[in-house]
Amino acid sequence: MTATTLAPATTEVLIQLRPADEWLAVCPLSRLTPGRGVAALLPDGRQVALFLDRDGVPYAIDNRDPFTGAQVLARGLVGSAAGRPFVASPLLKQRFDLSTGRCLDDESVAVTAYEVRAA
């Protein structure tokens, strides 16, 4: 009888978001650095900005800054205000709540916030 050695299964944790009715794998969790954003292109051509906060919680919002039209929110500065995580646009500095997409500096403006999970 010959012993068979099996390599341990290696499964990488993926960041998934739900842009519609189904979950979509976007990138490996290992590609995210706490406090920094990463842009990803969805199959329908939209761009999302992915973030991982310092506690390891993932977030995803539209990457398009509604004030300028530029796809730059993934490059913004991550912080928190009143315990709420936000990203500040690198262009005009408006802050967007990472959980809701609402602009903290102009309540009439928001970006789409996506449901996100690491699986």
TrEMBL record:
<keyword id="KW-0411">Iron-sulfur</keyword>
<keyword id="KW-0408">Iron</keyword>
<protein>
    <submittedName>
        <fullName>Nitrite reductase small subunit NirD</fullName>
    </submittedName>
</protein>
<feature type="domain" description="Rieske">
    <location>
        <begin position="24"/>
        <end position="119"/>
    </location>
</feature>
<keyword id="KW-0479">Metal-binding</keyword>
<dbReference type="InterPro" id="IPR017941">
    <property type="entry name" value="Rieske_2Fe-2S"/>
</dbReference>
<dbReference type="InterPro" id="IPR017881">
    <property type="entry name" value="NirD"/>
</dbReference>
<dbReference type="InterPro" id="IPR036922">
    <property type="entry name" value="Rieske_2Fe-2S_sf"/>
</dbReference>
<dbReference type="Pfam" id="PF13806">
    <property type="entry name" value="Rieske_2"/>
</dbReference>
<keyword id="KW-0534">Nitrate assimilation</keyword>
<keyword id="KW-0560">Oxidoreductase</keyword>
<keyword id="KW-0001">2Fe-2S</keyword>
<dbReference type="InterPro" id="IPR012748">
    <property type="entry name" value="Rieske-like_NirD"/>
</dbReference>
